[in-house]
Amino acid sequence: MSPAERACQEAYRAYVIRNYRAHFGVSDLERVDLVAEDWFHCDSRNDFRFEEVDRRIAVSGSGPKADSGGSRSTRFLDLASGMGTATLRGLQRGFDGFGLEPDPEKLSLMRQRIAAGNFPAAWIARFARAVGEHLPYKNASFDCVLSYQTLEHVQDLDAVVAEMLRVTRPGGALHLRCPDYRGTFEGHYLLPWLPLLPRPLARLWLRLRGRPVRGFADIHYTTKPALIRSLRAAAERMGMAIEIRDLEAERLENRLREKGLPGWRGPALFWKALVYARRMFREDFQINLWVSVG
Q1: 156 Cβ neighbours under 8 A, 6+ residues apart
Q2: pTM, full prediction
Q3: Are 273 and 198 in contact (CB under 8 A)?
Q4: Kind and range of the H or E element at 185?
């Protein structure tokens, strides 16, 4: 790693330490280092996002186009791209990627990362500062819009969902991942949590644990039913046909199938309950939806 990259990595780490302490009271350096590492390295740890795009958009019959050299040119938008880690990885892999981020400090670190890593300077223009409620792109601009751990922070979920659908072309898709607050763990504070804990009680719980409530002001409870309702309502208003697939449910069903449980309602329900119990109060539950746009 070059001196410029080491300096950039340390800047990432300083950002994570400062913000995790100020917003969530998290001072676990092991956790901080893990986050900083994930945000810094534009490597294969982000490939699962693009493998999903390749597999599912190709299956739908609308996927990756190729230029004269045969390279992929699927155009994607990374909503809330942070320091640009995943977007830069997608560009490295040959995707036609763009990132959108409202935090100017993260965008500044992204520019530092591009310079330190000797990425093409032209890639800086791939990033825009804006919010999800007002995307600065034309209708049907992208093959896929990716949103990872973002929707729980937006101010107006319905507006963001409508904007994501608006900028996705027919035959494209959204891939949406965020926490489901019907679970029993808060992944930002790393604390046990009751499902949809009323906000006054949540603030009291944080104070009792000696945690700042500052970060909680930017957290809005997301649930899978509410997100699906928002998607369907937006699609109806816009005259779009969408198909929603629950990837977490599909993966659990695949695990059950491997164990020979499909069709055995009792054992399947027992297995699902066991998975839920093992994760209670220790890790958050994820919404993981693939939304095909017709």
Answers
A1: 133
A2: 0.90
A3: no
A4: strand 185-186
3-state SS, residue 166: helix
Identify whether 238 is part of a domain. Answer: yes
Q: List Cβ neighbours of 6 (8 Å cut-off, separation of 6 or more).
A: none
Q: How many domains, in total, are found in the chain? A: 1
Would you write out the chain's pLDDT as a tens digit for each of its 294 residues?
A: 899 999 999 999 999 999 999 999 988 888 888 888 888 888 888 898 898 898 888 644 444 444 434 344 899 999 999 999 999 999 999 999 999 999 999 999 999 999 999 999 999 999 999 999 999 999 999 999 999 999 999 999 999 999 999 999 999 999 999 999 999 999 999 999 999 999 999 999 999 999 999 999 999 999 999 999 999 999 999 999 999 999 998 888 888 788 776 655 666 677 778 878 888 999 999 999 999 998
Cross-strand partners of 98 = 77
Range of the domain at 134: 41-181+222-249+286-293
CATH number, domain of 119, equals 3.40.50.150
- DSSP state string for 226-267: HHHHHHHHHHHHHT--EEEEEHHHHHHHHHHHHTT-TT-HHH
